Amino acid sequence: MQSNHIPSETDLIQGCINGDRQMQQFFYQNFSTKMYGVCLRYAGNENDANDILQEGFIKVFKNLEKFRSEGSFEGWVRRIFVNTAIEHYRKKVKLYNVTEVQENTVEDTSLDALDNLATKDILKVVNELSPGYKAVFNMHVIEGYSHKEIADILGITEGTSKSQLARAKGVLKKSLEGYLKTNKNISS
Amino acid sequence: MQNFKNKLYNYETPPPDDMWSKISGELDDQKVVHLKGFRGRSKFIYYGAAAAAALIIIFVSSIFLNKNSNEFSPEQNSKPSSFFSSATVDSINRNYQMLEKIINTPKDKKLLASNNVVTDGFSKKYITIAGPEGQPVRISAKVATLILSADKEYPPKPVWNETIDKWQQIMLSNTFSPTSSGIMDMLQMAGNNVE
Fold it and tell me: What would the pLDDT profile of A84-117 be if each residue is shown by its tens digit?
């Protein structure tokens, strides 16, 4: 019997911990679209995103007991999905160190053109990055992780994280220019 | 502030329709895995209980064996103290008395006398008889009594005769000495060795 009553966050968490399938489904309905967006940002294709989403929800249900209500619940859930995506790509991710000079040559303003694009188009451009660059770019620029956090999660040094981000921005800038050119040509 | 960051951060799109059924199915599988884990633990408990039971049996057996060997310790060896040991000595002595009546040939009497040199009750447990080729063969005094008493002049129990005839044939064709294999015989022998 389906109830119209919307459970509180605490009830929802407790219900999921107790293995209440209705609560779990409600939880899924609440978070699936947001988390699928996260998965698509890290995954190279829909199939991988589906795998990450499925694995991420299983992990969330398994680890709900560990949530200590010390921060945003959605933030906690999102972190699990990001970690799941990173684990999924850990083997594929190849991180190369680049020099400080290369790092400093890429300005943040070079990506301003992305603002004028629709979200799906931004996603298309970002998805052209290699898994390693994409992971660092997503974690630092979009999620707001510090380089230290990225270094800990990916098992790299802070310097490598910084250099990867610089390289990612450079590649992204080129992709964006190419994308804008192509679109201009199409529109004209 | 770069707007694309917010756009990407808040990007939402519905997953495939069958995604929940997949997750739900996997959650069911996880429950089965949990049960398997429980079974694994109960199996472990079962093995642990079996090991504990085996240890208890070994412990009790060792106490029993120590008790029996103490009954035949040098301090108490002059007279068997337990009912079991005195009954055994009586039985062996009775067997010898019967053998003395049965054995008629001088050669066998000589052999029996040589067996009697050791007067200790436990030494009489085995006697040496001459094999078909004159070789010495050690046999249990109890079995010897039965075999020899199968003679028609002194039949103890007619029902045994047929079986004992077979044994006689087997014994005549074998030259190896019988050995003790019963646990009680071994205990008695162990007692003798302690002495």
Answer: 999 887 755 554 444 444 444 455 666 777 888 8
Q: Are A48 and A16 in contact (CB under 8 A)?
A: no
Helix, strand or coil for residue B110? helix
Asked if the C-beta of A70 comes within 8 angstroms of chain B's C-beta atoms, the answer is: no
Tokens of A167: 């390289």
Is B13 close to A24, i.e. CB distance below 8 A?
no
CA B159 to chain centre: 30
Q: How far is CA B163 from CA B98, B123, B129, B141, in A?
A: 20, 27, 20, 17
The Cα B180–Cα B18 span in angstroms is: 76
The alpha-carbon gap from A22 to the nearest alpha carbon of chain B, in Å, equals: 10
Per-residue pLDDT tens digits for A111-150: 777 888 888 888 888 888 888 889 999 999 999 999 999 9
Q: Answer yes or no: do B7 and A54 touch at CB < 8 A.
A: no
Q: Enter the tokens of residue A10.
A: 């605490």
In the block, tokens 């249900």 appear at: A61
Which ipTM was obtained for this model?
Answer: 0.82
Interface contact B18, partner A, CB < 8 A: no
Question: What's the pTM?
Answer: 0.53
For residue B27, what pLDDT is reported?
A: 87
